[in-house]
Amino acid sequence: MTDPRPLVLFNSLTRQLEPFQPVHPGEARVYSCGPTVYNYPHIGNMRAYVFADVLGRTLSHKGYKLTHVINITDVGHLTDDADDGEDKMEKAAAANAQSIWDISRHYTQAYWADIAALNIRQPAHWSIATEYVPQMIEFAKAIAGKHCYELPSGLYFDVGSVADYGRLARSHTEEGSGRIDEVEGKRHPADFAIWRKTPPGEKRQMEWDSPWGRGAPGWHLECSVMSGRLLGFPFDIHTGGIDHREIHHPNEIAQNQAFCCTNGLDVPANSGARVWMHNNFLVERSGKMSKSSGEFLRLQLLIDRGYHPLAYRLLCLQAHYRSELEFSWDGLGAALTRLKRLVLAVAQVRERAGDGGARPGPKFGDALDRFDAAICDDLNTPVALTVLDDIVGMKKVDPGEKLAAIGAVDAVLGLGLLTLDRAALRLRPKATTIDEAAIAKVLEDRRAARADKDFARSDALRDALSAAGIDVMDGDPLGWDWKPQ
């Protein structure tokens, strides 16, 4: 496959921008670290999947055959990434007095609902950790002799047995995380569990027999096994949140090096993936981005307050994935307004274009080239959005060709502009008791009152809607009659 403009991506392993060069010509194989399904994902978690979705859509846009894998961790992840604490799944099951399988099923479905709401494309594979335990045991057996040692608590990986451990995190410099504590019995404080034995006298809901005793796999082992099984080593791109860059991904890399018998990381493919990509944090100043607070920001909370989930997707696209993004309700409201403007404008184009079927004409060539340049520049979605605005604002052009150009851009941005309508964007807050038919009737009565110059009745009707959680939008340039408060 040839393309006039290469896709350039930032590789966290080399800390450099690099042209994408697929391991297998014409293909792109991507693995994304998925959720540990012990609780609902918060909106900061979901930023990682919006980013990975834009990456996948961009690879498709550039003509690659995409194979994307996202894992579901339903066993093995401890409450501390540095291999300490309780198993998150076991802890959640005990706290809710439910089976761990019920916990896993419930929160996996909730995560998938958020994926759908954010218009994130389905990956080629959802890899469920518990379905790969036999393969994890075989993987561990293959590396145990040269790279692991046994302690009473389990089988541990000796990080000194591979070259360049921690290079991804820069753990031997001031950039390192400093989150790894000394643990008795380890040869090195960064050594991590490959297999965790069930303590004597205890029984886990999820445990398996292994050569090192009955127990469960370590969290880091899961991703190495599933990515290697489904994509083959080396594959093209591994993605995740920037928090994974410090411990989880360096440990994956060490396992991959051990399993593949590769050398140092001056050759990035020795890590198991040619490119490692990480999105930055979503920051919320009140501290409600942490699940430990008990009450945290979920996508459903945004919906319950009357914000369409694609407004949050647009908010994510307005910042570069490697930049911190601060969340605020005002910022989300501004993103919703921007989305409404786009939806209204595209609906008018759809109406004029009729059945469509056209292709972008030459008048759109420059704009589409600028869009391609932006998205090829390490997924520069903020600039790509400005190009979308330019296309939507173009006058005296064929509406069918214009709609095709919008569709080509939106195929990467994923805002659903060719199908989304204004009614879908007008969500009522959960606390609102009035339905849309009743709102329409009150607005009709209010228009009649204003036509009769009965302003006292008009104001009373407006106040009644306000009390029900509805703001009347007199003179709104977008043409919206009302919005949820």
Overall description:
The chain is an alpha/beta fold and 485 residues long. Helices cover 41% and strands 15% of the residues. It contains 15 helices and 17 strands. A five-stranded parallel beta sheet has the order 7-4-3-12-13. Strands 8-9-10-11 form a four-stranded antiparallel beta sheet. It has a two-stranded antiparallel sheet with strand order 1-2. A hairpin with a 4-residue loop joins strand 1 (8-11) and strand 2. The longest helix has 25 residues, at 329-353.
Could you provide a short overview of the structure?
With about 475 residues, the chain is an alpha/beta fold. It has helices spanning about 45-60, 90-95, 100-115, 135-145, 220-230, 250-260, 300-305, 310-315, 330-355, 365-375, 380-390, 400-415, 420-425, 435-450, 455-465, and strands at about 10, 15-20, 25-30, 65-70, 80, 85, 125-130, 150, 155, 190-195, 215, 235-240, 275-280, 280-285, 325, 470, 480-485. Strand 12 (about 235-240), helix 6 (about 250-260) and strand 13 form a beta-alpha-beta unit.
